[in-house]
Design brief:
Blueprint (H helix, E strand, L loop, with lengths): L1 H27 L3 H25 L4 H27 L5 E2 L2 E2 L10 H15 L6 E3 L3 H14 L15 H18 L3 E3 L12 H17 L4 H14 L6
Antiparallel strand pairs: 1-2, 3-4
Helix pairs in contact: 1-2, 1-3, 2-3, 2-5, 3-4, 3-5, 4-6, 5-8, 7-8
């Protein structure tokens, strides 16, 4: 029984990793629906591994390391691969200029900065009731959400013109995403220090606004929820401690 108790949370973490691996494979195969399901499963398992560890009091250094390694695939490699796929149709042309490499590899900056963000998080002891920088699961939701709703999802390289502003836009998204991951901006974490409304006002604003966005826009509102999350976090910087 002790073995199960001590390793149940780790099993959830490994499930997160397994789901992330499948999601990445299916993304490369063009099965974006399965990738979406895998991301959802990874998000659920990522939440419950910490919840189970706290409930069973089975927190361990092994669990901390496993969590970051699993997140590196599900919420680090996978979103970088999503942007890689997003930029793939544009070949080696950037704003009409031919460059010596395919711009799709720029998308992997998200993977590099996700790795950096996870390493910083493991060493930072301040982030108990807030995140410093955009957390990797939220960034994954943002990047895949944009990929899912963008109109050129089925675009192939042979129909993309050399002059295409979209490639510039996605590169700017990549740079912004990479910066947000390691930025000093405090982001709301859904951890409650007290039951007082005034202490949780930013979380309430975030929850209510997110529900409204999803109610109005449906599935297309998912990336907008993350953008809203970032904006609300910026507005309530002084209250996030």
């Amino acid at each position: 029984m002790n073995f199960i108790k001590n390793n149940l949370a780790n099993a959830f973490t490994l499930g997160n990793l397994f789901s992330g691996c499948i999601g990445a494979i299916q993304l490369l195969n063009g099965d974006y629906t399965t990738t979406a399901y895998c991301i959802i499963i990874s998000l659920i398992l990522d939440f419950f591994d910490g919840f189970v560890a706290r409930a069973l009091k089975s927190n361990s250094n092994l669990g901390v390391q496993l969590d970051s390694l699993a997140d590196m695939v599900s919420f680090g490699f996978l979103p970088g691969l999503v942007m890689y796929k997003m930029l793939e149709p544009y070949g080696n042309f950037l704003y009409g200029i031919e460059i010596p490499f395919d711009i799709k590899y720029i998308g992997l900056l998200i993977t590099l900065f996700s790795c950096l963000r996870l390493a910083i998080f493991n060493l930072d002891e301040e982030q108990k009731y807030y995140f410093k920088g955009l957390n990797t699961p939220s960034n994954t939701i943002l990047i895949f959400g944009l990929f899912w709703i963008q109109p050129n999802i089925q675009l192939s390289s042979d129909v993309v013109t050399h002059v295409n502003l979209s490639s510039v836009f996605w590169i700017l998204v990549t740079i912004a995403s990479s910066w947000l991951l390691i930025s000093p901006i405090k982001m709301i974490a859904m951890k409650f220090k007290s039951k007082k409304i005034q202490d949780n006002y930013p979380k309430i604003v975030l929850l209510v606004g997110s529900i409204i966005i999803l109610a109005v826009l449906g599935i297309t509102g998912i990336p907008w929820v993350i953008i809203y999350y970032i904006l609300v976090s910026i507005i309530f910087q002084k209250q996030l401690t």
